[in-house]
């Protein structure tokens, strides 16, 4: 279809995806607020995964059929770029909440700044971070916080290494070395899975031994919101890389045409950069 713009057929996936995502969010809200709704949340999640799989299947079939041209390639690149920008804004909101609490709210409660009189609410409160003793005595803070130089550092090294291995795989694909690409991409998937396992161990330690929970004051809330959403992105990114590995093994990409692979690289590198920010501002400082 050289010289023309491919217009996809009418698709049901956007509507079904929106409904599944809405169900997942409703279920998640019910679990967080009322402690029930797990089934609704899981059904919504299953629906989102199914829609993504079927929708991307259609895109792969269309691409392999030769229906896409240079204009469609530019559309995909712009779409992926705006998607990553939306993800930047997503995490910026949560980082912003963390910085607001640390730089403004806690000092105000400690008597500093123009809103220092708010310290009258809890005159015995001492402003410090990490906040192990919330000002309201009805809320129990964590018993202790994680040392950044153990599991968090290991996970940081794992994700940085995964960016390197993925870059090697990408360069190998561009040079036509499919076997090298496959091996280094498989290594990246293994590193991603290792990160997920270590994050799970850390969450177990947080709940079982450190007293870090969603109910452990503002520290527990910001810790799990930031690391939890990032963990979800790592899981999604690992699934995407597994799909890319299968496609490489099926010889779906060429050195000239492999934007599906390249887009997965963009996403994974973004997830890695976010983790570096998390490591610095959640664990270290």
From TrEMBL:
<keyword id="KW-0812">Transmembrane</keyword>
<dbReference type="InterPro" id="IPR024791">
    <property type="entry name" value="Cyt_c/ubiquinol_Oxase_su3"/>
</dbReference>
<feature type="domain" description="Heme-copper oxidase subunit III family profile">
    <location>
        <begin position="1"/>
        <end position="285"/>
    </location>
</feature>
<keyword id="KW-1278">Translocase</keyword>
<dbReference type="GO" id="GO:0005886">
    <property type="term" value="C:plasma membrane"/>
</dbReference>
<dbReference type="Pfam" id="PF00510">
    <property type="entry name" value="COX3"/>
</dbReference>
<dbReference type="GO" id="GO:0016491">
    <property type="term" value="F:oxidoreductase activity"/>
</dbReference>
<feature type="transmembrane region" description="Helical">
    <location>
        <begin position="181"/>
        <end position="201"/>
    </location>
</feature>
<dbReference type="InterPro" id="IPR035973">
    <property type="entry name" value="Cyt_c_oxidase_su3-like_sf"/>
</dbReference>
<keyword id="KW-0560">Oxidoreductase</keyword>
<feature type="transmembrane region" description="Helical">
    <location>
        <begin position="78"/>
        <end position="101"/>
    </location>
</feature>
<feature type="transmembrane region" description="Helical">
    <location>
        <begin position="12"/>
        <end position="33"/>
    </location>
</feature>
<feature type="transmembrane region" description="Helical">
    <location>
        <begin position="149"/>
        <end position="169"/>
    </location>
</feature>
<dbReference type="InterPro" id="IPR033945">
    <property type="entry name" value="Cyt_c_oxase_su3_dom"/>
</dbReference>
<feature type="transmembrane region" description="Helical">
    <location>
        <begin position="266"/>
        <end position="284"/>
    </location>
</feature>
<comment type="similarity">
    <text>Belongs to the cytochrome c oxidase subunit 3 family.</text>
</comment>
<feature type="transmembrane region" description="Helical">
    <location>
        <begin position="39"/>
        <end position="57"/>
    </location>
</feature>
<keyword id="KW-1133">Transmembrane helix</keyword>
<keyword id="KW-0472">Membrane</keyword>
<dbReference type="GO" id="GO:0004129">
    <property type="term" value="F:cytochrome-c oxidase activity"/>
</dbReference>
<dbReference type="InterPro" id="IPR000298">
    <property type="entry name" value="Cyt_c_oxidase-like_su3"/>
</dbReference>
<protein>
    <recommendedName>
        <fullName>cytochrome-c oxidase</fullName>
        <ecNumber>7.1.1.9</ecNumber>
    </recommendedName>
</protein>
<dbReference type="InterPro" id="IPR013833">
    <property type="entry name" value="Cyt_c_oxidase_su3_a-hlx"/>
</dbReference>
<dbReference type="GO" id="GO:0019646">
    <property type="term" value="P:aerobic electron transport chain"/>
</dbReference>
<feature type="transmembrane region" description="Helical">
    <location>
        <begin position="221"/>
        <end position="246"/>
    </location>
</feature>
């Amino acid at each position: 279809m050289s010289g023309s713009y491919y217009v996809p057929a009418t698709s049901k996936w956007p509507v079904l995806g929106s409904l599944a995502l809405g169900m997942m969010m409703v279920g998640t809200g019910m679990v967080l607020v009322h402690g029930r709704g797990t089934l609704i949340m899981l059904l919504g999640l299953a629906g989102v995964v199914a829609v993504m799989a079927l929708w991307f299947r259609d895109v792969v079939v269309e691409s392999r059929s030769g229906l896409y041209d240079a204009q469609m390639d530019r559309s995909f690149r712009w779409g992926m770029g705006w998607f990553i920008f939306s993800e930047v804004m997503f995490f910026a909101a949560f980082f912003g909440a963390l910085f607001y609490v640390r730089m403004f709210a806690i000092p105000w409660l400690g008597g500093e700044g123009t809103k220092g009189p708010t310290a009258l609410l809890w005159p015995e409160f001492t402003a410090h971070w990490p906040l192990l003793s919330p000002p309201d005595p009805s809320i129990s803070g964590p018993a202790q916080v994680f040392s950044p130089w153990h599991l968090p550092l290991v996970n940081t090294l794992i994700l940085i290494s995964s960016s390197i291995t993925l870059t090697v795989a990408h360069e190998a694909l561009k040079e036509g070395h499919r076997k090298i690409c496959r091996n280094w991409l498989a290594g990246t998937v293994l590193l991603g899975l290792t990160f997920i396992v270590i994050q799970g161990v850390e969450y177990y330690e947080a709940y079982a031994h450190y007293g870090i929970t969603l109910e452990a004051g503002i520290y527990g809330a910001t810790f799990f919101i930031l690391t939890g959403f990032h963990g979800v992105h790592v899981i999604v990114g690992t699934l995407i890389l597994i799909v890319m590995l299968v496609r490489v093994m099926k010889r779906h990409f060429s050195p000239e045409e492999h934007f599906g692979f390249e887009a997965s690289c963009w996403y994974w590198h973004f997830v890695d950069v976010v983790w570096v920010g998390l490591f610095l501002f959640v664990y270290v400082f």
